[in-house]
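Typical record is below.
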Amino acid sequence: MGHNAMCFRVTVILVGIGWILTAVLCAHARSEPPWTMEIELLLETGDVARSHAPVSVEVPVDERVSREIVSRLFAGDGPSVLVKEGETTTHGQVEKVFDRDGAVAGLRLSWIVESAEPGEQKRYVARINTANLPAVAQQFRFEDTPAKYLDCLFGNRPVYRYVYEFDPKRFHDTFKPFHHVYDFGGTSFITKGPGGHDSHHRGMYIGWSQVKVGSKTHNLWAMSDKSYQQHVKFVDRESSAGPVLARRVAIIDWKNPDGQPLVRERRETVVYKQPRERHLFDMMFRLETLGGVVDMPGANLHHAGFQFRAANEVAYHRSSTRYVIPRGSRRINDSVNGPWCVQSPVVLEKRYAIQHMDHPSNPGPTVYSTRQYGRFGAFFPTSLEPGKPVQCQYRITVSPVKGREDLEIGRFEKTYANYIEPPATQIVGIRVHE
């Protein structure tokens, strides 16, 4: 037998062995008995009426839930979750929780409380199951166009697009990552991209016009000095998409004109299942210095912080833009001193209510910047010191305006209360069945 023929036979044998081993391993995985974890929960709504409210509870790794149990729950395609309250059953979602070193620290169980009255007490049983259950009719998923953008969809309907392309040859079009928000049909963006009125305003974004490092000040807002923000990577282990929510974490470096990283941003975006004509986003940011002290005073509050910019067309009929602010607040020189602010622009002949909410744990003082052409957002001065990252979080809701009642202050007060006063949830018991 010739040398080439012998090599061919050996290759065929090795491939065959590989197929057999794969089949054996898959059969073994399928033969693993399904696991079920039951978590009994007690939820108290507090003084706030709840409507389509996301609820999460964390189950730490301990003597009840070991890392081995977590690993087995997430073997294969991961577990399915059903949350039962009385005779009502809804879908839940479970995720791994990681510590700062990337080790599994526990589980996070999430579901949506569709309706609850103030002072109400609810008892739930969440069944986390590794068995193959019927697929959920609609859930979140991601579609990535590498090095360009990431779409988040609910079923086949796009909800948002994270645009993260960076191309030095197209610097002005790609110098900052941002989030585009789709309309409720998933066909058009209600946010602005590159170009148009104030090209550097793009969708949902964060930045500071004054980023001081030593004797130099860099513009990480308009990028007028050729500083820029560049997507580095996704933290895939913290990515989650299911029937309740979609979570995505991105690492972004803020760089000076020479390409030297000054600040590292960790941006976590969570979007929750809501009625078809409503979006709910939680945006969490962690900013840390990559060198010495970084001062971000933002002397001009209209050019710093976490912002929402409505579609470019709003700049051409800006007189139609309305704002709703908290009771007791005043809008002076386009500034609002309050914990939330609502912009109501008209995009493609439809009026929207966009509520931007500041969390009480954020650094302060927070001031809202508001512009008739469609940009508004929360600003605070800060500085970054080695080993002391700054963290901030916000909630954004988008809903249609069909009548005067949709812009009443009371409804926005309730939405804000749902954000900062979540239901109190207690774990009553945990059982694991094989």
